[in-house]
From TrEMBL:
Residues 1-24 form the signal peptide. Transmembrane segments: none annotated. Its cofactor is FAD. Its EC number is 1.5.99.12. Residues 61-237 form the FAD-binding PCMH-type domain. The lineage of its organism: Eukaryota, Viridiplantae, Streptophyta, Embryophyta, Tracheophyta. One of its GO terms (biological process) is cytokinin metabolic process. It comes from the Eukaryota. This is cytokinin dehydrogenase. It is an enzyme of class 1 (oxidoreductase). Keywords: FAD, Flavoprotein, Glycoprotein, Oxidoreductase, Signal. Belongs to the oxygen-dependent FAD-linked oxidoreductase family.
Amino acid sequence: MAAMKNNLLVTILLSLAICCLVLTVGLTVEPTLTEIGLDGEVSVEASELEAVSLDFGRLSRREEKTTLALVRPASLDDVVKVVKAANKWPSFAVSARGHGHSISGQADTRMKGVVIEMGKGSGEIKVWEKEMYVDVWGGELWIDVLKATMEYGLAPMSWTDYLYLSVGGTLSNAGISGQTFNYGPQISNVFELDVVTGKGEVMTCSEERNSDLFHAVLGGLGQFGIITRARIALQPAPQRVRWIRVLYSNFSTFSKDQEFLISLHGRQASQRFDYVEGFVIVDEGLINNWRSSFFSPSNPVKISSLNADGGVLYCLEITKNYHQGNADSVDEEIEALLKKLDFIPTSVFTTDVPYVDFLNRVHKAELKLRSKGLWDVSHPWLNLFVPKSRIEDFDKGVFKGILGNKTSGPILIYPMNKNK
Ligand SMILES: Cc1cc2nc3c(=O)[nH]c(=O)nc-3n(C[C@H](O)[C@H](O)[C@H](O)COP(=O)(O)OP(=O)(O)OC[C@H]3O[C@@H](n4cnc5c(N)ncnc54)[C@H](O)[C@@H]3O)c2cc1C
């Protein structure tokens, strides 16, 4: 009897397994998606599915065809309909894709499913001039947010170095750059979000309302819902930027100066820089690298003449924003701040650009690299937070040790305040 029961159990399990296999292999979402009446587009074109399985990193590509369809929503309603359909039986996975500029396939579905390419969606960027915030669709690119807000003389405060990234994409990470020491990452500059949850409900969340969801979605790597609208804080936009680079041959002096500069956060604008970043130069060619195309070529520097410690130099990058009207006082403010730093005196490189050109600086390099076919290549990239207590060891072990003169890729150092 017992043996028979066991046999029966095995048979039932076996037939269940076969049944599941058939369902999984045969799962096609196309009829479901055409039946739910989307206003946007649905594509099952092999070339389009292949394209969304790739991203900027070019490090991962789905071997088995996990992406069954691609949806380009025309509205919030479309996103809701797809997520609700994904919850019905047979269910399928859903993944939001912004501009596909992460590096390891984060915006692709890991299981068989549908990629929602957020794109322009409903397309509206609504600037609330008096309230000093802007409402944007989750798939909107930061460059377009900047252009729209600049029409009102306003701009968000915290940025990434590159602006062809989507609002939903960077808010799902953190969004850090040289302004973070002062304003915090981009996720600290959001008032409110509309999120489509895993069940297909639309929830508005903020610090005060559904705050668990708000905090889970910000920096949540797309795992807690799809951001369809973000309300982002604005401030009056400056007109121009004085952009300065100075060099160091000694790492402790460099990091001490970086730490000093970020300790000035919250001071009056005249008493601090507006942006503090830096990079490591382990290769002489790098001083004229893709990030420096705004600096005049008459600024080349002979690294060998600078007495680099262990063959490595450190470049501090700082900016001061200003309005035409106070251009005179800017020079004095910069001079006073530079006097407090301990860089190599002959290594000051300065340029002056419109605010939008500064924020959009990497795009210029992108166009150059694209023209040489060097943009659509693999981009291995690693971000690490290193505590102040170990940064000197990191310099010795990694910059001077592992990397020393053997890499030509950019190595950026962003000083950060933990409390931001
Ligand atoms: C050249 C370059 C420079 C960069 N510079 C910086 C920098 O200075 N600072 C910085 O912080 N980062 C930087 N990044 C990294 C970048 O911020 C992240 O990779 C970001 O996720 C890319 O945005 P995306 O729109 O391309 O997102 P995608 O790659 O499309 O998606 C990234 C993640 O977000 C999720 N997601 C996308 N949209 C939504 C949404 N609407 N709702 C919920 N989840 C969503 C996806 O599912 C995925 O998990 C840079 C990247 C590149 C390529």
